[in-house]
Each structure stands twice: as C-alpha cells, then as structure tokens.
Amino acid sequence: MQRKILGLDPGFAILGFGAIICQENQNNLQSESVKLLDFGIISTPAKTPLETRLCTLYDDLHTLVEEFQPDLVAIEKFFFYRMSNTILVAQARGIILLVLGQHGLPIVEFAPSQIKLALAGYGKAEKHEVQEAVARELDLDYIPRPDDAADALAIALTASFQY
Questions:
Q1: CA-CA-CA-CA torsion for 116, 118, 24, 136, nearest 10 degrees?
Q2: Is 148 assigned a catalytic role?
Q3: Residue range 38-56: average pLDDT?
Q4: Which of 60, 137, 148, 151 is catalytic?
C-alpha cells in the first residue's frame, strides 16, 4: 500500500513543503520504505500587500495539493514566536487549513518537540540534528535547503512514523 504525505511548515513570508511517499511491504515483514517526492517553499515578497500575499499562499497551496494528491497532510503546531509574527503566521495557517479543508484532506499536527523526538530521539534536539536525520531517513547525501523545506520534510516523516 502506498501513502503520500505532504508536510507543511507554516509561515507567512516562507511556507515550507515536503512531499514523501511511503510504501508498505505487502506481507508487512519489513518496515515501510520512504521516498522523497519533492520539497521547496512558497514565498511571499515582503513589500507585497497582505491580501496579495495571502492569495499567493492560497493559490500555491491549491497547486501543491493538486500536484501531489496527498493522502495525509502533516503540519507543525502553531506556537508563539515574536508577537509581531504571531498574527501573520496565524493568518497563513488559516489559509492552509482552509485549502486543506476544501480538498477534504485529513490533517495531523505535531509540536516541534514531537518532531525532534521522532527524528533525533529527543525532544530538545538541535536543528542540524533533525536535518541530518531527514537526510538519513530519505537516503539523501545532502541536507535539503532551505531550512523551511527541511522542516516540512521532518514533519512529513514524523507523520509517516506514526500513521
């Protein structure tokens, strides 16, 4: 059985995405294999009006969902950064949830500590440790860049381990 998982690292200026495909062995004697489909970012230029930036997120997310047709979407749980960013990230997150809801996709959310625990073995792992684990799990000889895309892949991998 195959499952496509889309991981999203919510952001207003930069939204990271990572798509993976999980293949389970038919007789379930082996663990599932995970392969990279794609990763990247959706970015919205700083000097662009708020409503235009939100429309970019909306349109580009629809395109991603239509392209990858995921069976599951994993998102990092919202936590507070600096107060100036909190409202913007919350607005971007609202767009994400709207798009996923329009497509009827199941969503799972993970706190940063859950992602770190799943990939690096402990909840207070450093960013580079998680990124190295992403490269190892996906059998890559490089760490995916930018960081937002690597984070999205970490989120997708966490979902693959638990669902």
A1: 50
A2: yes
A3: 95
A4: 148
| Token pair listed for 78 | 């919202």
pLDDT tens readout for residues 12-40:
999 999 999 998 766 654 457 899 999 99
Longest Cα pair distance anywhere in the chain, in angstroms? 54
What per-residue confidence (pLDDT) applies to 84? 64
Nearest to 118 by CA among 160, 79, 77, 72: 160
CA torsion through residues 15, 110, 67, 17, sign: positive
Query: Catalytic: 132?
Result: no
Please answer whether residues 125 and 119 qualify as being in contact, where contact means their C-beta atoms are separated by less than 8 angstroms.
yes
List, for residues 61-70, the tens digit of each pLDDT value: 999 999 999 9
CB 57 within 8 A of CB 92: yes
Q: Give the residue from 15, 110, 4, 108 showing the smallest Cα distance to 61.
A: 15
3 state SS of 130: helix
How far apart CA 76 and CA 15 sit, in angstroms, is 11
Q: Is 76 a catalytic residue?
A: yes
Single out the catalytic residue among 9, 60, 137, 151: 9
Say if CB 7 and CB 138 are below 8 A apart: no
pTM: 0.92
Question: Which residue in the list 38, 51, 67, 76 is annotated as catalytic?
Answer: 76
